[in-house]
Amino acid sequence: MRWLTSLALIVPAITACTLGAGLYWVDHKDFASLAAQRIAHATGRSVEIHHLHVRAGLWLTADLEGLSIANIPGGSRPQMITLDTLHAQIRLTTLLHGPVQSRDVIITGFSGIFERTPERQPNWRFAPADAQPGPTNTDKPENDAPDTHWFPGIRDVRILKSDVTYRSAGGSSYDARLDNMHLSSQSDTSPLLMTLAGAYNGTPVAIDTTMASIAMLRLSPRPYEAKAKITSGDLEIGFDGTLTDVLNVDGIKGHITVKTPTSRPLLDLAGLKDFQDTVPMEINGNFSHLQDSWHLEQTSGQIKGTVIKDATFDLEEGNHTKPDDIHANISLGALDVNSMLAGLSQPKGKKPTGRAAHTDIPLQVPLKPDPLLNIRLSATQVTYNDLSMSGLALNAEQAPGKIVVHELSLGYLGTTIRAQGSLKAARDGTDIDAQFDARHGDIDRLRKAAGFAPIPVKGKLGIQVIASARNAHTLNEATRKADLSAAVSMEQGEIAREIVEAASMDLRLIFRRPKGTVPITCLLGVMELHQGIGTVAPLRIRTSIGIVAAKASFDLNRHWFDLVFASRPFSTGFFALDIPVRVKGPFDSPQLSLAALSKQGKALLAESNTVTTLPPALRSFASGNACLRPTR
């Protein structure tokens, strides 16, 4: 609506110059030069008008052709405003004791660009040519609402084949095409109606607005009531609220609703024309806009079946070429990432194929992001591929060249996983560094999720992991390429007595089969993993009837492992042979055999008894575990 200010300046200036010329030769005089001088003096800008003719009467009739008003220095184009033709009728008496009353106004070929320079100077602020520069009033806001007591009465105005562009200080452009815009009112005290058919950034848009009277508009900055309905294809946006600065579309407060069964028009308006998926959406909330701040609160609704329980969004426009800054706090119900991201990476014109197991999250870290993001996200449940998790809490921040995850926690298989880390832009992808831990994870639930056959150990595990991946492009690729170090501990649990005696090769197994379990005093395992291939060394289990030491290698890509374990001689009874045992094969059907009495067995016993060296970040995790200390 800023362009209305410019139009409002043009009409009074044109009509005022006609009075000074006299009515005798009005019908034959071209007032282009005189009007251009008056407008130039009032605005402090260079102005050109090709033709301006006025016909006298109770209603003065003005016809103008070829108007241009210069832009400010540093603007993106030489002319701020150009106009092909203007036809208007002005009540003669209102020129003497305004506000001016107009009717039968037809504007064709209006083109206006409203922008801020990189120094944030707005080009829609005009000053008379002879105005003396003075000290800057720092107490007055830059976007203080302009005086609107002079705003002309509008009975019937049509704007045809026109366009308006707004450019932010950061260079972002927002283009509106006005194919047919109509403003009308019965009187200055009746509602002002506006309809518009046009386009925004190339996407067709229609607007139907009912506003308070022009008399109320002249009382700015008193809140000015307005109701608007915006439609584009299957998209409907509703607004019901007030403005304190109508001409600058500022000081907005009101309730906003957004509804679309496909989101196709909304994606087009946002410039995401290649996104192929259907995204049903219904959102409502309280919206406000003041100067450089945009705010949306008490937001609820649903996006593609995901319920938005509550959300708050704050956007601060960047200053002096700085990017915009967005802070968001979003609370969701069940979040199905598979459904939400379906079609995200599909080529244009190709429908998504396959099941949810192929869902992948792109890892893109822009070097110069605009806007900057600070996100707090929570969800009651999260589904990603075949994983089902609960209690998601995420606190992440996007900065130039990196994304920092300050906190990530979620529930999985009865345990709570907490993580933190960062993603950094790399020459060929994204570098990831993360640290996470899980406490009180049930070992039987974890082995089922990993696809292992049943194991004779029960209890709760604690796990701490340091992970990194280099030059990854997606989340799934990062998990395949990850290098990690991990420590696994258990301080309360039990193991089958038969396993401990089998590990020690107790001769009594020939005559009996032991039953029951024995408590685990402690368990500690140290794992190293490189792109899915790893080792566990050492792995120690201490019980009251013996200490078991083990070493393992595994391949997550093939679901295959090789484990060698044996008891420590000093910890077992008289009948124990303490011969290493080997378990090898697929996760779900391994084979058991005796490990040869050779270098492998001797190496196992030596390695299992050495002092365990942990990365610094894992030392505090295992420092209180009795199995950390070597056995004698």
From TrEMBL:
It comes from the Bacteria. Coiled coil: none annotated. Residues 121-148 are annotated as: Disordered. InterPro entries: AsmA (IPR007844), AsmA-related (IPR052894). GO terms for cellular component: plasma membrane. Residues 21-167 form the AsmA domain. GO terms for biological process: regulation of protein targeting to membrane. PANTHER family: DUF748 DOMAIN-CONTAINING PROTEIN, PROTEIN ASMA. This is AsmA domain-containing protein. It comes from Gluconobacter wancherniae NBRC 103581.
